[in-house]
Amino acid sequence: MFYKELKGDALEAYNKMVQVLRAKAVKELNLPETEIVVRPIRPEDIGHANPTWTWIGTTANAWADILPNKTISDNRYVGISGAYNAEGAGELDQIKITRKGSVSRYWDMRPLRWQSGRKTAIYYCDDPITIDQNTTITVSAYCTAASSLVEFAFIGAVAEKKGLLISP
User: Fold this and answer.
1) For residue 49, is it within any domain?
2) Is the pTM of this model over 0.90?
3) 8 A C-beta contact, residue 133 and residue 75
4) What is the pLDDT of residues 25-68, one digit of tens each?
5) Contact (CB, 8 A) for 80 and 155
6) Range of the domain at 131
7) How many independent structural domains does the chain possess?
């Protein structure tokens, strides 16, 4: 289920996701918690070639792998806890995330379609997905029109060794 605000069940799910990411990073990287940083997700964290949430190559009324067979980088733990969806009405219908060759999340995006007068295009889920380092994922989309998705992005967090990307 998706929520318009990060509170209640959505906030609890997000906090639990961050705890899991941090714990895995501490354990698997064999580092103290002070050496782990948690930051917002970027497109490159899930294997996007460039730093924009632009998805090219959707197909009308069929599944399209918009991010096929990408491997999460070494020393990086990714969590997806929601989506930004301001695509026009009728385009993005479903999102499917396959992790390690098995469908791990199947999200119906129709209730999140952008509508005139809507105050937000950001939605938080109560079933976030975590993806470990060196894990292969595929993101697939089912759209009602063939085009590129330029107003869809994932919301989430990444846990990694301090200094890998940022050193607060």
Assistant:
1) yes
2) yes
3) yes
4) 999 999 999 999 999 999 999 999 889 998 887 889 999 999 99
5) yes
6) 2-161
7) 1
Integer Cα distance of 97 and 95 in angstroms? 7
Instruction: Give the contacts of 118 (CB within 8 A, at least 6 positions apart).
Output: none
Helix, strand or coil, per DSSP, at residue 133: coil
94, amino acid identity: Q
Answer whether 137's CB lies under 8 Å from 67's CB: yes
Kindly report, residue by residue over 75-94, the tens digit of the pLDDT.
999 999 999 988 765 588 89
Whether 166 is covered by a domain: the verdict is: no
6-34 pLDDT per residue, tens: 999 999 999 999 999 999 999 999 999 99
Pairwise CA distance, residues 67 & 64, whole Å: 9
Residue 167 falls inside a structural domain: no
